[in-house]
Amino acid sequence: MASSPSCHSPGTSSPLFCSDPPTPATELEDNLDEHSGQDHGYDEYVLVTGGLGFIGSHTSLELLKAGYNIIIVDNLSNSYRDVFERILLLAKLHCSAAGTKCPKAELSCADYRDISAMSILLATHAVVTPRRSSNIIGVIHFAAYKEVGESIKHPLKYYQNNVQGLIEFISLLDDHNIKSFIFSSSASVYGTLSENASGLREEACVHEQETYLDPATTNQLHSEQGCTGITNPYGRTKFFAEAILADVCKSDPSWTVIALRYFNPIGCDSSGLLGEDPRESPSNLFPAAIKVLTGQTPELSIYGTDWATPDGSAIRDFIHVSDLARGHNAALSAARDGRIQGTFRTFNLGTGSGHSVLEVIQTLEDVSSRGIPTKRVSRREGDVGVCVAVPDRAGVELGWRTERSLRDACVDLWNYLRLDGTTTTTTT
């Protein structure tokens, strides 16, 4: 058995500083013990920035399960080193059961905005072939700040990382002729449009005029460039980033960029070995509910009980994180196969169904057989009452659809908490 893969600086054998020590993982096989500095040959890789975070880690796992070699870049500012070991272990178990060889995985403990570190990493993956100059076939970018409330308090922090950092990163990728890019966007780009729609379509927020057929009437409609009603700096950083990427693609058609607009990811891998474990205190519903279920906080705050919804609580399109992760595989495959309309394309990743906050809490209580004390408080700045996707475009053009339900997500989350040993013994 091999020792666990360690954090290494690209092209060297000396460990790169990580904020927490490597975790032994003696279960890992030799073909998973891959790190930077080895001869990559002409193996193809997918680069995943922020790949140890909640969505990034689940996407990294799904990429490995699908047979892709991966390079994870993560500065560990909001994640932990041992997530890498969990990803590799689950990939090994999957491949062993399937009778296939595990793909390769690398981890670089670096900030994606560190041009020097990223330049060295990209240089180690340079190749010389008639068709390309790098063995990195695509980039999936998760390394953005994402807390709405924090973005309102510290907007410059968000613009510097989410927008300025993206510009610098895209310029570096362009220098290395790596031009297939999947961007982690958000339903927040729709802003208050969600309040006036039964479901949000991609045409509601576009970066150049679009003509499309209304599915209800089959009439031809036109979308005007831009979007109004974005309620917070976080959402604006996502809109600005999409606009920048659309402009890059328009100026250079050799680029292919897919922006995936996430709705509300929840749950965790069904194994119970990989979940959501941020360093910082999250404000979204499921992690907050976890803190109550594990006894870390006494009650769960319900923000707004006077929304124009059946029970007064906000309605969201909650999507299982593993379904969301598979959406990135589908996008990568479509980009590689040339199945994208144009060079820049947006897709909603959601279920198409909404659930209220109170409904989610009830489902968590049913699954865990535990009560979740709640406190009803005023609405949060930057929130909207309803936000539900129309995911038809992803179904037709990417061949992707969700497979897991809200209850599945709650079951998987409870399984993760029990296996992680963080639950208390109090029951209702």
Automatic annotation (TrEMBL):
CDD domains: UDP_G4E_1_SDR_e. Residues 46-342 form the NAD-dependent epimerase/dehydratase domain. The keyword Transmembrane does not apply. Residues 1-15 have a biased composition (Low complexity). InterPro entries: Epimerase_deHydtase, NAD(P)-bd_dom_sf, UDP_G4E. Residues 1-20 are annotated as: Disordered. Signal peptide: none annotated. Keywords: Isomerase, NAD. The keyword Cell inner membrane does not apply. Its cofactor is NAD(+). Pfam families: Epimerase. This is Udp-glucose 4-epimerase.
